[in-house]
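Suppose you are handed only two things: the residues of a chain and a line of SMILES describing pyridoxal-5'-phosphate. What would the bound structure be? This form records exactly that question and the answer produced for it, so the two can be stored side by side and reused later without any lookup.

QUESTION INPUTS
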Amino acid sequence: MTNRKPLQPATADGANKLHNLDRLHHLHPFTDLQQYANKGGRVVSRAEHIYIFDATDKKIMDGMSGLWCCNLGYSQPTIVAAITEQLQTLPYYNSFFNCSNEAAITLAAELADVMPSGFNRFFFTNSGSEANDTNIRLVHRYFDILEKPQKRIFISRKNAYHGSTIAASSLGGMSAMHKQITGLTYVEHIEQPYWFENGGSNTPEEYGLIAARALEAKIDELGEENVAAFIAEPIQGAGGVIVPPTSYWPEIQRICDERDILLISDEVICGFGRTGNWFGCETYGMKPDLITFAKGVSNGFQPLGGVAVSDKVANVITTSDGEFAHGFTYSGHPAACAAGIATIALLRDSGILEHTRQHLGPYFRQRCQELSEHAIVGEVRTQGMLAAFELVKNKDSKERLGPDGSGAQFARDCAIESGLMVRAVGDSIISAPPFVCSNDEINILIDRLVAALDAASDEFGVRG
Ligand SMILES: *Cc1c(COP(=O)(O)O)cnc(C)c1O
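ANSWER OUTPUT
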């Protein structure tokens, strides 16, 4: 199935014009604005299956599923048809003031079907950031109703990503973002379970327990009566695909169970199949009270996010008088919800998720793990359709390939040049390919990655 082509092939003139208009008028997220104003970037004009095409018609295999969201690739006619039909029937109506719409209702009911048991209520937003803002509002409301208003503090982790509004970046632990904001006063950060960086001489399993017990120490320091919730991604995505040691989540669960604090699983990346199961909390056997979702819920075809609210929290907030004074004009937008319904139908009913869990994920893992033999790869981390490759100059000392992440940036640029989109995070190359790849396409992805790693080891003078 192919998407409609542009009526005219992009001309060099047209491509240049767009490139310049972009540079002059369009401010980009997470971008060096001065550099962009001078140099501009890559204009992506169309996409098909797992490939994007830029304005010069260069074809690039998308090893990142867009921004971790186009999990089913770019050619999904049933999602497009669902959005189109919805726009022709009811293009917009709000969910305020006791109104609802069929798409939002149906999506909520479908989510109840695919979410872990005990999740039956859903609050819709346009994005993951807004969903995490909503989490703060829901948790405050919950403890207010329970007459524990002093429980206000959120604990999160360094190098976590929870979005980019002020509240979401406060929850997040990205130092570059914190430098540019005055964050919320009631968020505290603990160590991340990043064994390769911080594990020292501990085994991964030992280090997983140490990292988890930082939560226990922090709660005890702040006083359980003041702590409302712990928020974490099952696997940190933007932070560099930090796959935690297997000892980590059971220990976190024990600590939360023994104390009266809520556990929030930010599944904006891990949700909807990325880790091999519907949700990352299922992969790790943990039982959150709130789940943040976005990105893959609509396959990236419409802006959509939200919070899945457990019965434990819902039973409090739906049985108390007074308005929950929070929401967005586009909460439950019918076209976005239609995209969500069609995406869930594909994942559940076409066997894509089952295929990813049983065949594609294990194949991707096997091919990625082979790269741990490469001269500059210090560690390979994989889970489901997520992978990270730590680049080093020396495998024993873990000395980084280049200063300030330059090794990973060089390898990423080589990969893109050779037709593979991947990301550099710190000293790692990361990848999160769509679930609709064939094994042959995984092979091509690996070949291009190896070529980029070879070029990087030459550039930084490492002998294979
Ligand atoms: C992308 C992301 C968000 C933010 O989602 P937006 O839709 O960009 O606001 C939040 N949490 C995680 C884990 C993410 O990866």
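WHAT STANDS OUT: The domain at 77-349 is CATH 3.40.640.10 (Aspartate Aminotransferase; domain 2). The longest strand covers residues 386-394.
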